[in-house]
Design a protein that fits this description.
The chain is α+β, with helices and mostly antiparallel strands. The protein has one domain. It is 29% helix and 30% strand. The protein is built from 7 helices and 12 strands. Strands 1, 2, 3, 4, 5, 6, 7, 8, 9, 10, 11 and 12 form a 12-stranded mixed β-sheet that branches. β8 and β9 form a beta hairpin. It is globular.
Length: 267
């Protein structure tokens, strides 16, 4: 689709139920097409906000079988979780036929009234993952480790390539909010950081707890969530990141509880 959809963690016969924020933001959008969403990062460390690995799922059970970074991987084997080299999907015998894809999750906050309220943008699109990773690194460096204080927005962009036969390919970018330049954003971020510290908020401790939570999990995706992921992203006919891809942000109720339970989406 050529627009975002913000969903809750509830499904009905028609699919995922939209979150109330979807209607609120859509009402302000041109032609009611949601192509930008104001967001705030939850952590200062880019790698805590964006999680991305090559992921191979069992399509029947939704169980994550193998997760790798292009150099090494963790894989379920006869003796439990085993460590193996990760040659990337193109060269891995287990990954043939599109069974293994890059799977990315971007954790963001949309509702400033609930500072730990977390939404997840999920994608298997390499363009989105690469762009988001680069942007997070740039803003983290430029702001002096104040990524969580910057006024940012997710922006849906389109491009055409020879590989896509000149049809639009949509991907997600992370930019400063409309009307804000980098100098203004950094000045605002410093003020927010000072005010937060004065109030006793300890961002470094939050990043530390999140890092520990990720480290405690062998895999960050559970079986129940895995079935939904397989259904959307790992169909028999591999999808390109195109006009047919979905761009949904789903709401997670409690980030702290989620981190303790392998960072799974919660009802």
């Amino acid at each position: 689709d050529d627009q975002f959809t913000i969903t809750s963690q509830i499904q009905n016969k028609d699919g995922w139920v939209k979150h109330p924020l979807d209607e609120q933001l859509r009402a302000k959008a041109q032609n009611q097409k949601l192509r930008t969403i104001p967001v705030r990062m939850i952590f200062n460390n880019p790698e805590l906000n964006l999680r991305a690995e090559y992921s191979l799922f069992d399509r029947q059970t939704g169980r994550l079988i193998c997760s790798g970074n292009g150099e090494s991987c963790q894989r379920f084997g006869q003796n439990g979780i085993e460590q193996h080299p990760c040659p990337s999907p193109d060269l891995c015998p287990l990954a043939q036929g599109g069974l293994c894809k890059p799977y990315g999750r971007l954790y963001v906050n949309l509702d400033e009234s609930d500072e730990f309220g977390t939404f997840i943008f999920r994608t298997t699109g390499f363009n989105s993952i690469r762009t988001l990773a680069a942007r997070l690194s740039y803003y983290h460096a430029a702001s002096g480790d104040l990524l969580s204080c910057l006024p940012l927005q997710l922006t849906l962009r389109g491009k055409s390539t020879t590989q896509s036969y000149r049809t639009p390919i949509y991907y997600v970018d992370l930019t400063l909010r409309d009307g804000t330049n980098l100098k203004e954003a950094i000045t605002s971020a410093k003020q927010i950081d000072e005010q937060s510290k004065a109030a006793g908020f300890y961002q470094e401790a939050l990043d530390y707890v999140a890092r520990q939570g990720y480290g405690n999990a062998s895999f960050e995706v559970g079986g129940e969530e895995g079935l939904d992921i397989v259904d959307e992203f790992y169909t028999d006919e591999p999808k390109q990141e195109s006009s047919q891809s979905t761009h949904d942000l789903s709401h997670v109720q409690d980030i702290q509880k989620g981190l303790q339970q392998s960072v799974q989406a919660l009802n």
